[in-house]
Amino acid sequence: MMNFDYVRPLTVAEAVAAASEKGATYLASGTNLLDLMKGGVCHPRRLVDVTRLPGLGRVEYLADGSVRIGALVRNADLAHDAEFVRAFPSVAEALLSGASAQLRNAATVGGNLMQRTRCAYFYDAPSACNKRWPGAGCDARQGENRLHAVLGWSEACIATHPSDFCVPLVALDAVVEIEGKSGRREVALEALHRLPGDTPERETLLDRGDLIVALRLPAEARAFAAHARYIKVRERTSYAFAVVSAAASLRIEQGTIREARLALGGVAAKPWRARDAEQSLAGVAPDVAGFREAARIALADAKPSGDNAFKIELAQRIVVRALTLASAGTPTRIPALPGSPFSSGVRHVA
Amino acid sequence: MSLELTRDPAHLRHGSNIGQPLTRRDGVLKVKGQARYAADNHPAGMLYAVIAVSTIARGRVTSLDVDAAKRYPGVVDVMTPSHKPPLAEDPDGKPNPFAFKMELLQNDEVRYANQAIAVVIAETLEAATEGAALLSPQYHTELARVGLDGAESYVPPVVGIGNPAVVQHGDVDAALAGASNRIEATYETSAQYHNAMEPHAMVAAWEGDKLSIDTPSQGMAMAQMRLGGLLGIPPGNIYIRSPFLGGGFGSKGLVSGPQVLGIMAAKLVGRPVKLVLRRDQMYGPVGHRPPTRQTLRIGTDSEGRLTAIDHHAKVTTSTFDDFYEPAADASHTLYASPAIKTSHEAVRVDSGTPLFMRAPGEATGSIALESAIDEIAVACGMDPLDFRLKNYAEVEPISGKPFSSKALRQCYAKGAERFGWARRPLAPRQMRDDDGFLVGWGMGTATFPALMFQAQARAVIRSDGSGVMESGAHDMGQGAWTALAQIAADGLGLGIDQVEFRSGTSDLPDAGIAGGSAHTATAGAAIHNAGAAVIAKLADLATNDQRSPLFGAGNTGVIAREGRLFRRDDETRSESYADILTRAGVAEIEASGGGAADPAAQSSYAMHAHGAVFAEVKVDPELGQVRVTRLVGAFAAGRIINPLMVQSQLFGGMIWGVSFALHEEAVMDHRSGRILNANLAEYHIPVNADVPSLDVLTVDEHDPHVNALGIKGVGEIGVTGSAGAVANAVWHATGVRVRRFPIRIDDLLTGL
After folding, report:
1. A277, A292 in Cβ contact below 8 A?
2. Is the dihedral of CA B375, B378, B380, B384 positive or negative?
3. What tens digit of pLDDT does each residue of B418-439 get?
4. Of A119, A183, B72, B471, which is most buried with the most CB atoms under 10 A?
5. pLDDT digits 0-9 by tens, B566-586
6. Which of B282, B298, B325 is a domain's end point?
7. Active site includes B500?
8. How far is CA B180 from CA A114, B307, B419, in A?
9. Domain range holding B379?
């Protein structure tokens, strides 16, 4: 039952070919996939180990000001890359707020994008889960669901996407480079993850064999470096997934917000870009009234999927906090407790 | 020769080893990875066993695809209800009050999720794991009964081990009716499951009807008795090696079903077998702390003197056995009240049987009681420490017995001073730090009974002047290898390096159970008495020998110290152990000693350790996230054998208190009865970043009644008081009283 092929191709083309068969899946560091296999949640017939593929482990700062991050770059390496931290501080803060040091040392950038939900019913093989078994039903819907989605959920699935990393990335218009059977293409990260609708088993727009080879942040994303934060509320100070998180980035000129970027984590099946809220902030002064209005707009469509109405209120407060802290300026170095409310003062908020 | 003493024998002088902050004698072994834990053993020809566990909480197994498992390469055999070695005793029997029912494939019934339903034995761990998956069990499933409202409740026959379920002292209803101030509040605590770093493991090897096992045990002699009964062999035929435990916390006090299954598997295949539980498999068969719902009604007179404490606890237990967390009993001893009532009710649910988990009853009861005391102090307009001092129990409230010793007042004073409690504003939500976080200060009283079980030890002095002390004690990580060796060295009047301390195997004298915070006291007393007995023999040899400078001193006329006997009235006259034995032509002398509670002292005195814990928390005023920032605990627990080990024990207990108040909770699906977070990623305990600056103070207590050494024990008391202190600090920071633990962000959010 748990026998599977294991192949370790040496070129991207070989990898794509090897993964194009039914039941094949890519293996990078396996920090999520191996747990899923051991737990009987995933049963791949073939693991295509991509860790030896050449050229995917580099961070390249391109002449146009953008950065291209190979899919095999380790989370920890990226988060400690000094130039990256300077240019994209909220992304580094999000990375360092996730998992544990050991996991960050192993986990890859591409793998982080592809991690699965932490919905307990997805992991609990005997439970009904439409992700695992389309049409089986969703035991989370009437189950223990205080941490489930409040935005974009459907009756078929109320799971959330667990990544911290993806939240500021989606806010900063990150682009994913994909190698597939028909060559290379690019998609906005915001479009990579899908909302569940009636097909929660289809979590991304990737086709069979598609391999994420790189992630790009555009040069424009650097414009927010002076006012960018990631704030994450969790049930212990470290090594816990977000109850709710927010990435806020502001471009402030002459005391006015010229452009705002805002995304939420832990609220939906994908990192949730709050574009309407961003619009409301453009051209206004960076003050609490404006931030509260943005928060209200960001969560206007939210509704509880279970015992989780508190997340709607919490998410609004986190949006206000993240915007407030971002407007106060990016700290000169990443706080000792990255993403934690306890890493920054709240005096100016209260 | 056996000698039992309840007072310091005059011919031993303590203090050269006892009281020293020695580091762990096994520390280097552990740091180097050379300490051999049970699962590190691989006897020749060993096979691997993996249990298949039920995914339903209630029903029957209707089929297992044994053939599929057996066909898998490497699988040797599959143990099932119809294919297993016979047992001599029904695992559902109750041969004694400490025997709890276990699932040993006696039938196809499933009574909780994660129950063993088969065991696959294979040449490799991988094959056994795969074989277990291939069994593809089918079930007849019945509706699971889950949680405190999952079934009709009833009054249990007893709680804990033999405590009455209902205790009444005075008339609480009348006292409440006449009270000037009163509160009534209901608190809920969550289920907690054992997560010792080392999971339960068994390496079993049979030779005829003799059994040799490597397994972590907090009570080897009890394990021998239980296993002997089940397997139908004399307990003496069972040899247990348990030199190190990667934590026990009560879960390894009684041998668990899966451990026995490992032994049965070895019998079935006629080869040694190793069986180690996976982390998720610990959530069921090894005991847990059940959820509780506790209602406290407290009344005072107009000056804040308690007139009534009524503490009622509802707990869950399993459908097939009886263990009732004695949560309400926490209100028996701490606060002086003319009327005290404690009572329990229970609900049978489809879970494993809840059992001993660090401070069972004391911990769950403490967080409710200490929260309620905080609430009544608020109702009286009093500082919580002043309230506790005003209601200080000078004698044990219900029994009226004097305390054998009770330095709680000093604990309050020293803890409060170190913490800076005097600066605490009475009203909540008055303090902010420089960053704008809400700051709150709370306190709780800690207490745990000073128990003793029974233990034996054997002491030897050899003609080269060295000594041996044997007692089959259990080092769970708490430092027994070190603290007991210190007692042994003083008991023998030797330096610790001259004493060979033998422990951790079942062929040594029974050291009793390492539980109830009683191990150092009990095994220590046995060791102390064995030392006294062998020194008495040595003194006899010397003082009866005309050639000795000690001749005629009488054996109480000498003192043992640093490998010599000294004349008490003239310390210039002394003789070394080696000289005494060599001259007598004796290679070694030996003696035994026992440790047990003194019934006379127990009937005359109430014996408890005490403490006071002060907590500071910070709370984000909008987001509701809580962080403990300071924790000060002052404890009085009799004589401290090793201050370093004691500090670690108290640190660990206090951290569990943080966990209890803010983090730890097993989430169970209310329909299936399965635990949804049976892993260390999602079963939250504090990480380093959650653990604040910890400050532990100990207050000297010289207790002449608890035992000869005056030891009370510190294994569990740290959990008590701490959880309530944190919860009370959250109230003081926010003004929001949360009565459900762990306190969650959602509990605080709307009130902030």
Report:
1. no
2. positive
3. 999 999 999 999 999 999 999 9
4. B471
5. 999 999 999 999 999 999 999
6. B282
7. no
8. 63, 9, 32
9. 145-193+287-400
